[in-house]
Amino acid sequence: MATIGEHYNRKVSYFYDATIGDSYFGEKHPMKPFRIVIAHHLIMKYGLYKKMKIYRPYRATQEDMLKFHAEDYVLFLRNINEGFVLSNEVKDLTKRFSIGTKENDCPIFKGVYDLAQVSTGGSISAASSIVLGNADIAINWAGGLHHAKKAEARGFCYINDIVLCILELLKFYKRVLYIDIDVHHGDGVEEAFFTTDRVMTVSFHRFGDEFFPGTGGFNDIGAGKGKYYSINVPLKAGLDDDDYEKIFIPVMLRVMEVYDPSVIVLQCGADSLAGDRLGDFNLTLRGHGRCVEFMRRYNIPLILLGGGGYTVKNVSRCWCYETAIALNTEIPDELPKNQYSKYFRHITKLHIKPERVTNYNTPEYLNQCIEHAYETLRNLQPVPSAQYMDTPPLLVEPSTEESVPRLNPSSVHSRPPSADQSLSPNLRRRSPPKSPDSNKRTSPFSVKSNVTEIVRFWTDNLSTDIRHHQDPSSEYIQSLNAVLEISDDDENTDQKSLTDEKSEDKIITDENSDHTMSAESADTSIITLSEIDSDEDFNIEENQDVFE
């Protein structure tokens, strides 16, 4: 199988806010946001920051959240941000919104609204970086909270950052593909887009035996205009790397062929790894990361989000490894010395080993899952088109200095571009137009194709771009530019307005490198990596419950 290094590099933006580690669900609660801080430290120690731009995302506002969530629900979250119920009237709403009661798993704790702002702001900022052309791949490991509903907290998720991220993408892209490899079904995202053909949701998850959330069966295929645009692959306990690859690759090959998305959002929930506290799949980092590697090969903008994952040591290593995959970089298996080395104790390797558990996914059942996905996709009409309308205002303005990463989601155009105006070069679309013969293409596989044959076909074609079979440096790819461009007057006006605004992002400068990244401290505009990555006083023994 081809290695990561055989494929071309893509611009990567990474979003991280150190305050995510301040959130604490409780001693016995399995959700530990501190896992993201540990993952970040591993990313830093492996030197991956040198190959990407790192931003400190802005915090999502109430107005941002109201684009999907109910107003009374968002106001309730703000009222309980201090960690307690302020009045009897608010207390009566806890049961209605499934927060802070014994019957649910979403507690009230100090900073719950702050956590929602950070995770959601990171995902919206990731979408903005893709739209603006600042990145080909955008990463927000604090996002991926796929269970939250319009007016209900669910599955440790309070605000659905994924839905808000996709809504931002839909302003500029006709079709968004959402893929979920969390061990739990992505019910909140599927429900939000259940009746539209502009978003296709594909979820590979554990199903049956009353496993949470209990949705995502074969018959959940969408409704109305969205019928057949929800693809669910319900799997059984014990799924290992080989079987996951055998089912993921053929399903996604057909999805990409039929749906032809403009942009991809991949939720990388790490509770599908072996040894997770709540999941019962048996994947290693290589098996989980294979999904990221496969989707990366398409010449399509890609957003990577976090999600579930409740064995902190495994989750942090997984997201560090998948950051390396996004960067087309191989990293050694030996864990570098870092601030949390004492916590890892006897663990010295990056990769984990599968456990000795029974895999209940028989070849016959896997083939049944593939055939059902193929049957659903066969019912689709030709690639859907969006109704033409003016482009909505940008959430993020282009930077006046292209060499410095700078995001300001709070600023917008004074007016949306008209139909005969177009996007500037830094807003150019990534996905090339279909070739003249694209409508005649057929899959090399029938529904009855042997799974091994399909995987072998994919393996034999790893050395080229799957979708276009073109070198990204070729004249063909370079000639695929967007057709629209914003007028000079508008650009001058927007850039002038930017100079009058204070940027929400701070920059970090490596003393030994010209690379820039966003700061973790709002006190200074420029700090050195030696400052940000210094070993702070953190007592592992006193804070052991953060990790367990």
What do you see in this structure?
This protein is an alpha/beta fold and 548 residues long. The chain has two domains: 9-378, 3-Layer(aba) Sandwich (Arginase, Chain A); 507-536, no CATH class. Helix content is 30%, strand content 9%. The protein is built from 17 helices and eleven strands. It has helices at residues 34-45, 62-65, 71-79, 88-91, 93-96, 112-131, 161-169, 187-192, 241-259, 285-296, 312-326, 341-344, 363-378, 451-460, 475-478, 488-499, 529-532; strands at 12-15, 53-55, 137-140, 176-180, 199-206, 230-235, 263-267, 302-305, 507-509, 516-518, 526-528. The strands form two sheets. It has an eight-stranded parallel sheet, with helices on both faces. The protein has a three-stranded mixed sheet with strand order 10-9-11. Strand 1, helix 1 (34-45) and strand 2 (53-55) form a beta-alpha-beta unit. Helix 1 (34-45) packs across helix 11 (312-326). The longest helix has 20 residues, at 112-131. The protein is globular, with a radius of gyration of 22 Å. The two termini are 36 Å apart. The model is unreliable at 1-6, 397-449 and 461-542 (pLDDT under 50).
